[in-house]
Structure prediction request, 183 residues.
Amino acid sequence: MHKEIAGYEYDRQDGERVIVPSNYPLFSNYDPLPQEPRPRSPTLLIDSDALEQGDQIDKGFKKVFAAEIEQFRRAFRIRHPDKSADDTDDGTLLREVVNTVGKPGSLGSHVRCVVSVSMLTEGWDANTVTHIYGLRAFGSQLLCEQVAGRALRRRSYFLDKKTKTFPPHYAHCIRNRVATMRP
Prediction:
């Protein structure tokens, strides 16, 4: 699913690198014209193990986001005076990316799409989610509502002047019916 949304690259048998951009330009991690990876990938693949191990951050990411990482470390030292900036390992940085999806000036500001494995049911909260594609077996209505609720977090608490109510929030939820095999 991540490859379909973000695009991908592979090596042909003759050794040439081939880039396959996504059919979704807004979410493609590859620029179709120069056929190169984008320095700030809009689509992130993440799961709980990646957060614990922090193994999805490479040197290129750290170079492109050096200013944002330094800003995060300064804020980390202020929020946690008892800890060192050295406590901000790759897992901590990746968690910050996920927690700041779509927030300007943050590590997650560039992310438009998160392809996750079980994260939407584990308490991850981002009030900037607008689209959810449920590629899983939704065994209950409650689970479906829980996942959809991730895209309905209120972003604004300002009342509409005319109606004196909060403005409505919408989410685009696409449910894929996954067939399950029974023994």
Notes: Residues 178-183 have pLDDT under 50 and may be disordered.
